[in-house]
Each structure stands twice: as C-alpha cells, then as structure tokens.
C-alpha cells in the first residue's frame, strides 16, 4: 500500500482544497521516487506547489489560523516547522534551477545525477511535510478555528486558488 493510500485527506472547508492538492503531490512524489516519472515532470509539479499551494498556505491559511493557535497553545511551533519546510523546498528548488556557479574562473554546472539527487531531497521533505500538515497543522486548524472562520478561509482559498492557478498556467505556456 502506498503512503497516499494510507492517508485520509479529508477536512473542513478551510483545509479541503489544500488536502486535495496534498493527495496529488504525494502521488507525484511517490511516482518520482519509484522512477515512474522523470525529474522534469516532478520538478514541474514542485514549481506549481511552490507558486500555488505554498502561497495559499503562507498568505491565507497560516495568517488566519495563527491568532487562534496562539489563543489555545502557548507556542507556534507547528507553523514555524511548516514555514521552515516551505523555505527548504524553495531553496533546494532554486538551487536546481540556477545551477551555474562560478568559482574563480571555473564554471560549475550541476550534473543530471546531482539534479536528481536534489529532487530526491525535495521528495523526502515533501512527504514528511504533507504528513505533518495532514496529521498536525490541519488537525489543529480543524480543532481550533471557529466554523465561521473556516468558511471564510475556505472561500478565500478558493478564490485565490483560481487566480494563482490561472497565473501559473499562463506563465508556463510562455
């Protein structure tokens, strides 16, 4: 049984859109790790995840939830961990997409094996990240975010998703 098949991916209006994206991300990540898709397809999905999914979490869900987390818990560690993983994935991804480094007079370019290795790093982080969100952060959202706020966040996520998805698809066609 795959990791994706072992997870629930069900939540309230405040998290369902993001959970649906998690389901897809875990499938793509497992396919990459099982050599069913190549690095190019995997990195295209990660680019989408960074530009769309992470943006939805960083700009809408986390700011809406943070005050409620502070109210019920005296620490924000779940948010710091999630935000840190977003930064790690972005950093590794940017390193892959800007592989030309100049050391003195020597031009160093990442090999295909190095790119695949960095893709593997991203894949491992992404699987852990989804697990932490599904079983940690999102469960806290379900528990502590009041129902009217869940509906507001869900509506805002849906509207922003449409915009980000359209922008991404327009940019990727250029």
Structural overview:
This protein has 174 residues and is mainly alpha-helical. The chain has one domain: nmb1532 protein domain like (Four Helix Bundle (Hemerythrin (Met), subunit A), Up-down Bundle), CATH 1.20.120.520. The protein has 6 helices and 2 strands; from the N terminus they run H-H-H-H-E-E-H-H. A two-stranded antiparallel ribbon has the order 1-2. A hairpin with a 2-residue loop joins strand 1 and strand 2. The longest helix is centred in the N-terminal third of the chain and has 34 residues. It is globular, with a radius of gyration of 17 Å. The model has no long low-confidence stretch (mean pLDDT 91).
Low-confidence stretches: none
Rg, Å, rounded: 17 Å
Order of H and E elements? HHHHEEHH
Residues in helix, %: over 70%
- Give the CATH architecture: Up-down Bundle
What would you give as the CATH superfamily?
nmb1532 protein domain like
Mean pLDDT: 91
Strand order of the largest sheet: 1-2
Number of helices: 6
Large-scale geometry = globular
Largest sheet: 2 strands, antiparallel
Tell me the fraction of residues in β-strands, as a range: under 5%
Question: Would you state the CATH class?
Answer: Mainly Alpha
Intertermini distance: 39 Å
Q: Which structural class do you get from the secondary structure elements?
A: mainly alpha
| CATH fold naming | Four Helix Bundle (Hemerythrin (Met), subunit A)
Count of strand segments:
2
């Amino acid at each position: 049984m795959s990791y994706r098949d072992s997870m629930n991916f069900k939540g309230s209006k405040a998290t369902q859109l993001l959970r649906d994206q998690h389901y897809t991300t875990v499938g793509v990540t497992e396919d990459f790790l099982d050599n069913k898709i190549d690095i190019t397809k995997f990195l295209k999905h990660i680019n989408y995840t960074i530009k769309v999914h992470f943006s939805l979490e960083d700009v809408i869900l986390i700011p809406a939830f943070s005050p409620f987390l502070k109210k019920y818990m005296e620490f924000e560690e779940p948010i710091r961990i999630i935000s840190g993983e977003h930064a790690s994935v972005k950093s590794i991804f940017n390193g892959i997409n800007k592989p030309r480094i100049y050391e003195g007079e020597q031009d160093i370019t990442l090999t295909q094996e190095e790119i695949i290795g960095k893709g593997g790093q991203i894949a491992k982080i992404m699987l852990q990240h989804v697990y932490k969100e599904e079983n940690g952060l999102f469960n806290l959202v379900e528990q502590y975010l009041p129902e009217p706020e869940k509906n507001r966040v869900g509506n805002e996520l849906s509207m922003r998703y449409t915009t980000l998805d359209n922008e991404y698809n327009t940019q990727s066609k250029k």
